[in-house]
Fold each of these.
Amino acid sequence: MGGKLRLGGMLDGLAVLDLTDHRGEIGPWLLAELGADVIKVEPPGGTAARRSAPIRNGESLQFLAYNIGKRTVTLDPNVAADRSTLRRLLGQTRIVFDSGPPGLLTAFGVDRATLEALNPSVVVVTVTPFGSDGPRADAPASELTVAALGGPVRIQGSPERPPVKISVPQVWRHAGAEAALAAMVGHHRAVGDTMTGAAPRPQFIDVSAQAAMTWTLLNAMEAHAIQGRDFERTGATLHLAMTIPLRRACADGYVVLVPRGRNAGQLIPWLIEEGIVDPSWADEDWDTYDHRLIDGEEMAISHAEVIDATDRLCLTKTKRELLERGNELGVTIAPLNTVADLRAFDHLEARSFWRPLTTDADPPASDPFAAVNGPVMIPGSFLTVDGERPFSERPLGPSVDPSVSFASAAPGDDRAPDEPGEGSEQPAERPTDPGFWVGSTGSLPFEGLKVADFSWVGVGPITAKSLADHGATVVRVESINRPDPLRGQLPFREGVAGTNRSHFHGTFNTSKLGLSIDLKTEGGLTVARRLTGWADVVLDSFTPGTMSRLGLGPEEIRRSNPSVITVTTSLLGRGGPFSSMAGYGYHAAAIAGFFDLVGFEDHPPDGPWLAYTDTICPRFITPSIMAALDRRRRSGAGCHIEAGQLEIALQMLLPELLDYEVAGTVAGRIGNRSSDVAPQGVYPCAGEDTWIALSITDDDAWGRFKTVLGNPTWSQGAVLDSVEGRRNNQNAVDTGIAEWTVQHTEADAERVLREAGIAAGIPQRSSDLLADPQYRHREFYRTLEHEELGPLPYAGHQYRIDGYRNGPRSAAPTLGQHTYEILTDLLGFDVDEIADLAATGGLE
């Protein structure tokens, strides 16, 4: 046990106690991947996570996947010595993760007062379905019902079918990853107290899985309040300035190819070569095609003809042919991969992504890996640090002696500074001024932190927003000549388009300052160089190599700013055959296998709502940046973090990838059903397009459910008294359930079922979420004053911290809103210099 951590273990020595079950275990796992010392506490018989599908030879592959790198101990809440052991560990730890309700802390009789007495600077993160208080706090819940009440179910799928969730578990993986982010915020608050001499305060953090799922809605979170209408499910369709079908059938499956003007223009040589279009198509002005189409101009080549041409091309080619030739032509054509495709994807091999799963001893005959010929390969870490993949070489081991302790006591946070990673430069001396990092100027955990945000669209801006909302000074870099593409996308205030009217952009850029510079000019680059010299963190999301070509790569920045943390995120990461591929979260979702996991088996894949990986990646990148800041505080060392969207997204499919490795199982679309819960589905209610999601989570729930239904004849018989029997007969069971639900409104159905202790929830639209009593109680939506549009609702954080009103602090900036103040107050340009920059186009 206790194996060595490779380079990049940024949280080396951080003590983390994991009391979670399947509803949060990914959080401490994520911190273990970053180097934390994680001890998992289980009751006798193990947590519920050990019974989570997929199960192979009696072992849960989900449990195995998300407990790698942890040490384990079994403690019985009914044994006095074990209760004492838990209290000793609580006194040593920095961060405690728990799942609820009710949670393992409650089982051990540990309340808040006890925790504060044991460890006044402890950070306690509890993951629950809806939050620890509020009108829905104690409601029964399931993976499906949380996703329904959070919103994504309502807008996923085709209109001729019921609303649908992603076919593999995602709710608790999102919530658990968000818990890791929240834990690092709490850790930085606690360290800030220490550095400023303030009295230590425990950090009690409450993560809502419902809110985590609402954040997967992206532009639909506040849509109704902004544009006066909800988004509705329309299958594999892109809801931006134009509604465009994303999915195209090809010779061996499907691809995502957006048939818009620029893509069509780049495909023209291939389309002509294949005899699909007339050579005269090359004369069209494809660069302005989309704008003219949106403006309603009469087009010589209609959009329907463009769609038809791309469809005809795709039908004659394989996914691989389309990927390769599209990449040559500069067109992103993303294959709808399965887990089998991913295991064979040469780009991941080139990136050295896969790693062997190690074990403490030879596996027993019943081990799920016993039948595997050769090493069991699993995805590697979700990022690289200074060119290395940080990961724990420790496997999940057997239970250890109850005398187990952390490697170093954590409450005082006196961990020794570690060595800088390869490629980073150690400053002459370790910084001692807390203003170097956080805490010296106020109560916000990242106040004093300086961030240059060169990113755009989703992943980077959401990541920087997390720091800005907690007090960091984040300068959002854009150009009047090339604004963030999200500024041109729905929803627009009152449906009227405009550079500053998109709330898609607005939601992702709260609490930031806006700077406009043109990086194609020497003046713009002059400002950028000074900005990167000023910053503690520099973030970009350009295609790999772009920043270096501008003279703003990590090596160049580090020469004048040796302790800087540079972060770059791209679709596929550098160093592979498809590294130059540019794209968005819906491309990454297709390549990562998520498109093929949404919908019904007898229907083409519908894919998740919009740019799904844009909602996954910030949950991993943001705590990684916070971990890098923690290491920098202790050692003074900066680093370069590279995060590929594909590799991060695959962390949310670890159990399914492991199941393919072990058993050859290819996860696929199963609608709203589950391998271990039956019946489960989204059923029609009285009214047009109204639905109720419900899950019968065990046999006792089935008995109560039959009573609610009035014990109809079809529900009787011993064959339906087991999960297996109900699953084998679910078609007939679904028909019977629908006969009952269609007689009730969705509100009545939800009320009656919840009163009977059945997990049920209405698949909510944006308009429902804005009025959700649970969200109103938690103050999830915050109204902020926008410079141009006035008061607007903004989705808040997915967690609350006691004693701290965390959330967005100010509305997103208009384009270049703070340019003058940034140049003068932050970067030290004088009036004459600014005039020269403006005259030469540097500020456009």
Amino acid sequence: MRLRDGTLGQQALFAALVAVSLLGVAIAVVDKFDRLGTANVGWLLDGPYASPTNEDASEAGLRGGGLVLSINGLPLPPHLRTGHTTGPGARTELGSTNTLVFRSVHGGVRELVLPVRPWQWGDFAFTMGASDVIGVFFLAVGVVTFVLRPYELASWALLSLSTFVSATLLTVFVPTDSGGHAAYFLFCVGVVIYLPFHTALAFPVPHRWLLERRGVLWAIYIAGMAQGGANLIAWHRQYVGPFAYTRAVGSAVLLASISALIARSAGLALRASDPLVAQRARILLGGALLGIVPFAVVQFTRELIGVIEIDNRFLMWPLAFFVLALARITLRPALLNARIAVRRAVLYTAAVAVLSVVALFLVNMRPYLVAVLLFPLLYYWPRFDARLNRVLYPQRARFPELLRGVSDELATAPSVEAVLDALASAPARLCDATSAVAFLLPRATGGGEVRRRVGLPPDDRQHGLDSELLIQILCATRREIRREQLTVEPQFTHIREECRAGFDRLGADLLLPLVHAQRVIGGLAIGPRASGDPYEADELDALANVAQQAGQALMRVEATEQLRRRELEFADLKRFFPPQIIDQVMARGGAAELGNQRKLVTVLFADLRGFTAFSDSVEPEEVIATLGEYHAAVGARIAEAGGTLEHFAGDGLMVFFNDPVDQPDHIERAARLALAMRDDVTRLRGIWTRQGYMIHIGVGIHTGYATCGFIGYEGRRDYAVIGNVTNLAARLSDAAAPGEILISARSYGALERGFLAEPLGDLTFKGFHQPQPVFRLIGPTAGGRLSATAG
């Protein structure tokens, strides 16, 4: 998810949190410019505790600060306004002096005479350098982490903590004499006291309360804002009345919230069964112990017991350990292979140091030699960089070559299995992965799933991937899934063990989707690296690109196979159907859509009269030539009529209409075809008679219901109609005299007006118990349908 993908409310909350810290930056910058050149008495008071504000006061004996007893002979009041001030009785005229009596952190009561001089930029660095640097560091870490991992529970917690802590640190040394600065600072302090509770719920792994009891977060932030309001009221009232102990209460709450964070981290570090959770808990525990525990302990003992007087600036630098620990466990997927980056930085530093020494040596000898050094440096430095890459990243240096090799294999793979083989071998070649599984889901293959495994034992196929919960999540999100996400991301809380079992079955640490047309068709499950290092961002991008290329290759293979199947199918259909019928069949989905079905069809049978005697009296070559002439003539007529040729049988043929596509005029088509065939044979008889061949055609037509569909076996199929309609059409053809077209009463009764026929009465046919009324089709007529009486 990217930062701009958040909802309007999420983006507004992000902007508000960043604005809180940026306001602190603005207050700190304005304060420095306002105070530049004004009186600097040498110290600042936070309650009764003084901290030096310049190097002079520190060297004079105020180093580390102390508990102030009196200023210019005036004792401090029992309740001093919180915030930073010079205290009552302090002289602020430039050139004057102040006498400060205090109990030093080093022991004993001391008296100092400090001159008043103008504020300088060095004084700001001395006084506020630690708080400003750590404050900006907190802000940068919080914002960068959130941008890299936006809108996650841990990112929200870190951003909230970072912005409020940053705002507090940036304004901690800004005088609170003005109400605006005081309100801002005291409000941020109040919220910061409670923020460790939120951090404890979000780290090292999100607590279930963050999902199930969102009211807990409301309670934390409402309490923090109430604490900020109490701080402000106490400041206005000089700590008199019920608000006198506001700072003490705040310190106690801070200690309690930090204790909760440490307790949860320690518990998970010791008892977590997941090694990743334990590792994250140990990192956070170390950061808390090094970073915030010293500050919290000092603050608590100072406010409640008053036995430690120490300058808070000494406690700010360790806070960086804490925020670094939070960033480390939040950004673990983004901060990969840091050790290699460190090695590279060390080697670069060493190379630059050597070059610097050489340059200094040459400058002492001849200055112009430094310029001469630049020429070989410009030549050899790129080679040095390339060699360093080959040493530190042996495979990354060959990435272009390896990627081209994988891409070529995917582009030339002739089958789905070959594509998956190339895809499964890619992680080992690119990233030293110990194993990989490339698979296609049944929904993509239209049958069973297809898997290819590298570096793993043979798959027993006992678990179907299509029903695997992990794969279902992959299909829903269409995004990569890492094993470590199961531990740290709350959406896996209730399904963690089942998803982890899915990773175990695949032997994987990373799962990438194969996506086509916004649909997951398969995946690539990648095992751990042989070196044990995590996968780097560049490697993940390369693997994602390979997976995308594999998806395209699979579609290419599928399209090629589909085209080949359609070509074979077209060639198969061409044996039965005319081109216009084939086009309609292919548009409906091809032969796969031609299932067996019962339909009303019109069947035409035709054979040659006298052909048997002709074939017995001439050479076979003449028989073949004559049949060729006959078939060429009637074949063209069949195509023109849109009939389906079931078969040739020597001099006989069978054609039917109204299947596989609907033809409302199927009887008329059959009649016109029969007449056209008779005319063609009549034309051919003029040639055959001169050659001594006494051949003519007989045709039979009948309409009825039949079952239509493919018959045969793989490699030898026919498209046929099965039923009595074919039997009667065949009997009519057998009964037809030379040049005669016989049509059944059912066909003739449904024939449109425009054909001339004469009844032949009822004829008895073999295989039929009842005589069948028959008509002789004579030809078309310009008027209505006419019937001529025989004789």
